[in-house]
C-alpha cells in the first residue's frame, strides 16, 4: 500500500488548509493499473482527503487482484472503474451484500467498435453501415485492422469477419501484432486523411483525439455475441457489440462506516466523451497521472463540486 495525497499541492501551489473533519476516518481506494483507472482514483482520493478529511490510502490494483481482495479481505473500501464483465465474482459478492455498485463509472459503459473516420462518412454516408462498407470496400482502404492475437476482441472480430464475409467482399483482415501498431495505424490514416476501417474500444486516448464513426453492425444479440466470443462455436453470426458495465464499487462496510464517502461515490461518473478527451490530453502532453488529475480538477470544477456535500464544498471552495 502507499499514500498518495495532495495532488494539487505539487502542481498548483494553490492548496489551502483543509478543514478538519473528525467524522471521516481511514479509507482505502484501489488504483487500477491503467490510465483512466489511475486518474479516477486520483480524483477520488483528492476529494475524500481535501473535501471530507478522510485519511486515504491508495492501493495499487487491477481487475483480478481487486475482486480477489474484496472477496477475501473486504478491501479496498472503494474500487473505481471495475469492469464487472471481467470480474464475475463481483455479482456473487453483490448478491451476498458485501459490495455495492455506487455508480456507473462511464455514462455509456465500456464500448467496443468497428470504426471508420468521420471524413469518409461525410463524403459517403453509406459507409456508416457495414452494408455500405461491404458494397464499397475500396472506400475504406480494402482492409480491416483487427486486434492482436490473445486479445478477446480478436476472437469476436474474427467471428464477425467470417459472418460478414469480409474477405469474400474484398476486405483483407489484418491482425496487428500489438496494441501500439493498431493505434498507430488509425492515427497515421486519420492524420493523413486516408481511408481506414478497424477495431477500437473506449474510453481511450485515440477516440479522444480522432473523430471516428462507429459502424452500424446491426443490433446486439446476446446469444450470437456469446457464440462469437467462443473459439469453439461453429455458428458465428451478426451482432453489434454490447456496452460493458463499468462500476465504481464500494464495500457495504464503507457505506455504513462512512456514509458521506459513499454518497460522494454515488455521484462520481464521467461521460465517455469526457474521458476520451482527458485521456487524449494526457497522451498528447505526455503528462503524469497526477497532472491529469489536476487538469481535470482545474477544468471541470462545476462538475466535481456538484458531487460534494455542502461541508465538502465549503472545504474546497476557491481552491482552483
Automatic annotation (TrEMBL):
InterPro entries: ABC_Gly_betaine_transp_sub-bd. It holds the Pfam family OpuAC. Residues 26-299 form the ABC-type glycine betaine transport system substrate-binding domain. Transmembrane segments: none annotated. Residues 1-22 form the signal peptide. Keywords: Signal. SUPFAM superfamilies: Periplasmic binding protein-like II. This is ABC transporter substrate-binding protein. It comes from Spiribacter insolitus. Coiled coil: none annotated. It comes from the Bacteria.
